[in-house]
Amino acid sequence: MASRSRGSAPRWTAVFLWWAALCCLLLPAAAVKHENFKRCDQSGFCKRNRQFADDVSASSSWTSPYALDPASIAFKNSQLSGTVLKTLGEGEHKARLPLTVTFLESGVARVTLDEEKRQKGDIVLRHDSKARKERYNEAGKWALVGGLKVSEGAALSDQVEQGYTKVFYGEGGKHQAIIRHQPFGIDFQRDGETHIRFNERGLLNLEHWRQKAEKPKEENKEGEEEKKEEEKQEAQTGEDESTWWDESFGGNTDSKPRGPEAVALDITFPGYEHVFGIPEHATKLSLKTTRGGDGNYNEPYRLYNADVFEYEMDSPMTLYGAIPFMQAHRKGSTVGVFWLNAAETWVDVVKAKSTANPLALGVKSHTDTQTHWISESGLLDVFVFLGPNPQDLTRQYGELTGYTAMPQSFAIAYHQCRWNYVTDEDVKDVDRKFDKFKIPYDVIWLDIEYTHEKKYFTWDPLTFVNPTKMHKHLEKRDRKLVAIIDPHIKNTDNYPVIDELKKKDLAVKNKDGNQYEGWCWPGSSMWIDCFNPAAITWWKGLFKYDSFKGTAPNTFIWNDMNEPSVFNGPETTMPKDNLHFGNWEHRDVHNINGMTFHNATYEALIERKKGEHRRPFVLTRAFYSGSQRVGAMWTGDNLAEWSHLEASIPMVLNQGISGFPFAGADVGGFFGNPSKELLTRWYQAGIYYPFFRGHAHIDTRRREPYLPGSPYTELITQALRLRYQLLPAWYTAFHEAHTIGAPIIRPNFYVHPEDERGFAVDDQLYIGSTGLLAKPATKEGADSVSVYIADDQPYYDYFDYTTYQGAGHHTVPAPLEKIPLLMQGGHIIPRRDRPRRSSGLMKYDPFTLVVVLDSSNSANGTLYLDDGETFDYQQGAYIHRRFAFDGKRNILTSTNLASGSRTAKLDAFLKSMTKVRVEKVIIVGAPKEWKGKTEVVVMEEGAKESARRKKTAFEYYEADGKKAAWAVVRDPKVGIGKGWKIDFA
């Protein structure tokens, strides 16, 4: 669901606001309102620091005022500590900034810089504020879950260098941190080469506390005296102080009780032309520069979770979530940084190209990517990753912030949603029609209209008369229901939820310490403060079956509007001087806010009923680093336009490499009515989103897959069945994400990190480690697509085995009835071929293995399988097999990858899967030598002596033009969880 077109609404009468909301329902939607969201020059701290960067760049004599005091340096237990001194002006005192550089066992380094005065509480807050005096230092409490073990091998260099301190760390001491004392800066090296530089350009800026000289009100004639004083101070310091003490935007004023407190740092990636990450933005995978120029941006990338209505394409504008993790990539190396800060953040990206000096032999031209990170408040807290490859970065980042939750199997199938299914009978009717047209789906969703007067944890008694009966109807087909629950609670009479929220004092507070009231869907609302442990405990109780009556074990939850969206708030969100638990200001925690709510809902679903141990499913719109631990996200309020379909691929790819791979976009576009061609193409692309949901706005025409008519319904059904056929491969990819942090869908640079021509390719994707290469058609009227192949392996069309080989671009037919999908040689792809109504009905279906031979006639693949529902896999109840085809011996084998000892849970699971078998093996690119062969030998472990070695029928099909030869073994009668081999010799 989305917020409709709206501006900043003053607190007039409830009648007026409800009338305005009604009008919004009746009027057509408008495009994003830029005037509702700040540009950098309208955000005081961003403007100051960007101007500071311009001034430094223009100066030929600039020297950073930050210096590390050599006498303060100490090194103990792989942590360097010291004090950075900030010179505040000629003849003035120095601000003391405690520094720690921690070297972790994983090879990651962590740099933190604080401010002693605020740290000690030695400051005075303005306006008698109740806010905390410290810089916010609890972001790690929410974002970090591991990976913080300190290295045992980090050591100071024996070589003493004047003005520098050098630390060796990482495996074998291959990493070095060279810490410059004056001006303060750090170079991070791997194998003697510098890959990341802090403060190379001197843009480090930690705005120290200073006290504002307050004028008595009687002396302040309409602000004239204060204005003159500020102008006098500005003339003395040369700094623009106009937004130090308060700041207004859109009719709202931010009181800033702590004054200016921004933190900023320039981080350079020398020799790196491509940087990726820092979602969420509707832009390319390889980030553009932000300082102007042809085709580039003039604004920095903004990270400030916001409810952006009908967002535009190709923009650095903020969206719903924020992950301040950036990777830089070049041939032979991937490095990155994680900027652990939850406040509003802006990131400038500049690519500085150097030309080769013809007199300097061996010196080539190169590009340095220079970034400038600016946050409004909090600590400077940065993790540094030195790779050397993309897999290292996603794994190490996952060790810190957590890996993707292992979802229930239904969650990776197809979800059918719109705002709104209007009655419980409507839900059942949609369900029946999917069956009537033999279209698979697993989940149907309810938006806010199911509630009684937009009160969460209720059902509308006129339209959802019998939700229990509705759930039972879905359960018969092994289907689920997802209902929306947002963080704003309607402030009204005769509503126990709001009564308890107020009584228990669990809501977010305003700057005066009173419970904050704002406006959202229900009108007057209050927001649960999930930074408060007591609020989480209370929230969990609301989801129990006897509390949220009408729900069932097949009910799951959607958290929307959790940026948070506040219709009458600044930038459609909460005032920054609001207060959360612990008296932290909202400005400090804004980007984490949505994750705390998401976490609370996840925990609530786990505890719905004692003894019920099903994995939760909770979708979120707002997110931060760590949100991947508890659910899925989607890219928000997109449009039914070709450009939005095209942009969804790099957006979802970027989520994957940034540690939150369970991502998708609204199929068909949320706003507007897609043409039948666009709707069909979007389903053909959506089958490659890890989170796959069709969704639509309340004002759009109904567009369930059975409605477009022939041939579109059949083509959409074909796409959906392909997704279901490949669910074993998808589930295995999710397991990789859950255990090693690998993206579920992968861009070219991640799979082929040495292929320089493909680093910026972001309109195609690989599915996990399967070798499946998809290139969705995203242009109107397209009848082909250009697929980029990075290597010399053969690639085969998934459906007819047409061969494509050779690095470069290949034209692949893609008329509307054709889904372009290739298989890279060298892989074995598990799938289930029997069409079913839902994934739950496939649980005991047999498997097909597609063995795609590479140029050396070899192939490998894996399959992960568990009950798809409970947490029993944590006690070993799973099947994990490795399939390998040995091209020299012509033998296909299945071996066990599961580790650990036998458990009762494992034995029970294996028993339940005893009859699940491999029903077919297809070999693509089959050798010519097999022609004429009619049988193969199959051997299975544990079989009776008489059945241990058996012959099975074999069919060989010759190559036909560009179509490869292939072969098939039908029903080899081997168990999917058993060890076995098939001898083709």
TrEMBL record:
Main location: endoplasmic reticulum
Pathway(s) of this molecule: Glycan metabolism; N-glycan metabolism
Location in the cell: Endoplasmic reticulum
GO biological-process terms attached to the record: carbohydrate metabolic process; N-glycan processing
PROSITE patterns noted in UniProt: GLYCOSYL_HYDROL_F31_1
Keywords: Endoplasmic reticulum, Glycoprotein, Glycosidase, Hydrolase, Signal
Domain of life: Eukaryota
Molecular functions (GO terms): alpha-1,4-glucosidase activity; carbohydrate binding
Signal peptide segment: 1-31
Biased composition (Basic and acidic residues): 209-234
Domain named DUF5110: residues: 848-895
UniProt cross-references to Pfam families, sorted A to Z: DUF5110 (PF17137), Gal_mutarotas_2 (PF13802), Glyco_hydro_31_2nd (PF01055), Glyco_hydro_31_3rd (PF21365)
Gene Ontology cellular component annotations, sorted alphabetically: glucosidase II complex
Record region (Disordered): 209-259
Keyword Signal: yes
Protein name (database record): alpha-glucosidase
